[in-house]
Amino acid sequence: MTYLTITPLKIVLCLTLALLTAFGVRLAVGSARDRHFRRSQFKSVISIRGKIGDSLALGYPVTFKGLLIWLALIALIALECYAVLRFF
User: Fold this and answer.
1) With contact defined as beta carbons under 8 Å apart, do 86 and 4 qualify?
2) What angle do CA 88, 82, 58 make, to 5 degrees?
3) Which run of H or E residues covers position 40?
């Protein structure tokens, strides 16, 4: 018996919630982003972000606190998606 049902509406809802959560975490981190995260360098024309994408991207963690923030973000997004797939 399966408890998780996947529909196109739930996929869109999960994606929307994940983007809003990532945006909220990015705003909560604020100026500490440069201390705890390092953004990757552009290696080709395809990977260049615009001003909005560059300001919203966290990067990859370089400190222990950055790793904890990253793990909390991943766990929160996973819980949100589970709740949507299970209860909505």
Assistant:
1) yes
2) 120
3) none
Say if CB 39 and CB 66 are below 8 A apart.
no
Higher-pLDDT residue of 3, 14? 14
User: String of b and e for 12-24 (b: at least 16 CB within 10 Å)?
Assistant: ebbeebbeeebee
Answer whether 87's CB lies under 8 Å from 32's CB. no
Two structure tokens written together for 9: 């509406």
Q: Which of 11-20, 28-37, 51-60, 74-83 has the lowest mean pLDDT?
A: 51-60
State the residue for tokens 């945006």: 23
Which of these, 25, 24, 21, 28, lies nearest to 84 by C-alpha position?
A: 21
| Beta bridge partner(s), residue 61 | 37
Q: Answer for the pair 37, 60: CB distance below 8 angstroms, yes or no.
A: yes
- What region does 38 belong to: left with phi over 0, alpha with psi -120 to 50, or beta? beta
Q: Is the pLDDT of residue 67 over 90?
A: yes
